[in-house]
């Protein structure tokens, strides 16, 4: 587990309390500039909890995870993999949006390892509240936070990796990586992403 890992906070018993706590968090600089914290949404005690990197621009403004283009692609991939979206919980490893200004546009900037580590205990609080049967790491930042070490995503995609607490983590790409890729390769990349997600079907009794 990461050096900053600690047991879940017993005073955080609901997602609303987690939201309030992360709104006030200033353990790293991101919380100071973001509009708000964005915690996960979905079913409690789900078969699957999917974890991305951090909220994007629209997520930061509206306060909901995976509502932008990457979220729409993820929803399409879950449907193609025959994973009921309503039986999942979606969240991010980092709870605030990190960006840099280019004119009036806010451009996504990847969080540092220190920022991921600073937010790690909030993610563990969330997992303790949600109590999923399995986890999906969408991209390298999520895999690092969930597994406590660097994980080569391309070498491990579609595989289940164990955590010390007994939960398993399915590793795959973040859907935004597909959106940034070669347009001519977008459909094969999407099919490979769906194939990764299909490895989670066993959690749904298929």
TrEMBL record:
SUPFAM superfamilies associated with the record: Uracil-DNA glycosylase-like (SSF52141)
Domain Uracil-DNA glycosylase-like: 39-198
InterPro entries assigned: UDG_Type-4/5, Ura-DNA_glyco_family4, Uracil-DNA_glycosylase-like, Uracil-DNA_glycosylase-like_sf
Coiled coil: none
Keywords: 4Fe-4S, DNA damage, DNA repair, Hydrolase, Iron, Iron-sulfur, Metal-binding
PANTHER family for this protein: TYPE-4 URACIL-DNA GLYCOSYLASE, TYPE-5 URACIL-DNA GLYCOSYLASE
Family indicated by similarity: Belongs to the uracil-DNA glycosylase (UDG) superfamily. Type 4 (UDGa) family.
Name of the protein in question: Type-4 uracil-DNA glycosylase
